[in-house]
Amino acid sequence: MTMSETENPENPRILALFDVDGTLTIPRGEITTDMMDFMTTLSKKITVGIVGGSDLPKQIEQLGEGITDRFPYNFSQNGLVAYKHGSLLESQTVSKFLGEDNIKKIVNWTMKYLSEIDIPVKRGTFIEFRSGMLNISPIGRNCSRPERNDYEKFDLEHKVRENMVNAMRKEFADLNLTFSIGGQISFDVFPNGWDKTYCLKFCDAKDFDEIHFFGDKTFEGGNDYEIFSHSRTAGHTVTSPEDTKEQCTKLFMSDEPPKKIAKTS
To answer: Which residues are catalytic?
Structure first.
């Protein structure tokens, strides 16, 4: 599908923004052909946008080459890298905003903390520097999928990420940072206001009557919470790509005009 086919949907003043992991794909998985076909059909009904926490190369791995051209809005790193109709609008960096001295303090503290915790498995890439955030993973992003799945269960029971986030909030209170737990194995660290609501600055209120958001980590502390609960959005909690498809079909693809509804969970 070309961009021209998605620029003139039947209801252009309804915008639906979609998280990636757990919403359009399984965590860190690739979108299925069936799901992409559904999104393509949906984009003929309403305006569609993607808003993910990962950087653009990872988003491309999951959603395919040309994803910035496929739908009218594409936001990676919560919108710090923003595309509209395939054109780059903005690219912000955390290193410029915080300064290298503060970045080094965070990295050094994190490595010391991780060296002192005991978890069943540790692999590699414990800190991933992205242009808009630091992504921190106690197990390491190089873990295998079975290790990832096992760690998620361990983390839910022992609150490894939650405890680390609480410690970092105390240690770096002066830097005004947000800590957002997302996915199975990691959490993001970024300046306040750089959560997924950042992307809304590119969605002009005069252009839309409704803005819907679909995500799976919509609980407080999850990386979808801020945009899910924002006053400008109708938030919808989903549990899988199949659930996303089902909810969108009911909302936007019935014979009746879509209606703005309360947040769902």
So the answer is: 19, 21
Q: Say how far apart CA 13 and CA 205 lie, in whole Å.
A: 10
Rg (CA), the chain: 18
Token pair in block for residue 248: 């969108």
Question: Does position 81 have pLDDT exceeding 80, yes or no?
Answer: yes
Which two structure tokens, joined as six digits, stand for 194?
């750089």
- Residue found by looking up tokens 């808009």 in the block: 132
Helix (H) or strand (E) holding 90: strand 87-91
Q: Are 212 and 16 in contact (CB under 8 A)?
A: yes
- β-pair partners for 211: 15
pTM for this model (two decimals): 0.73
d(Cα 189, Cα 197) in Å, to the nearest integer?
A: 15
Joined together, the tokens standing for residue 206 give 């005069």
* pLDDT reported for residue 252: 97
DSSP state of 262: -
Report the alpha-carbon distance of residue 8 to residue 205 in Å, rounded. 18
Ramachandran category for residue 231: left, alpha or beta (phi over 0 → left; psi -120 to 50 → alpha): alpha
Task: Name the pairing type of β-strands 46-51 and 234-237.
Answer: unpaired
Q: What does the block give as tokens for 234?
A: 């109708």
Assigned token pair, 176:
């005004």
Helix axes of 145-158 and 160-171: crossing angle, nearest 10 degrees: 70
pLDDT level of residue 6 (50, 70, 90 thresholds): low
- The HSE-up count of residue 57 (CA atoms within 13 Å, CB side) is 2
Report CA torsion sign: 60, 62, 65, 66. negative
Q: Which two tokens stand for residue 190?
A: 């970024």
- Residue 220 gets which letter from DSSP? T
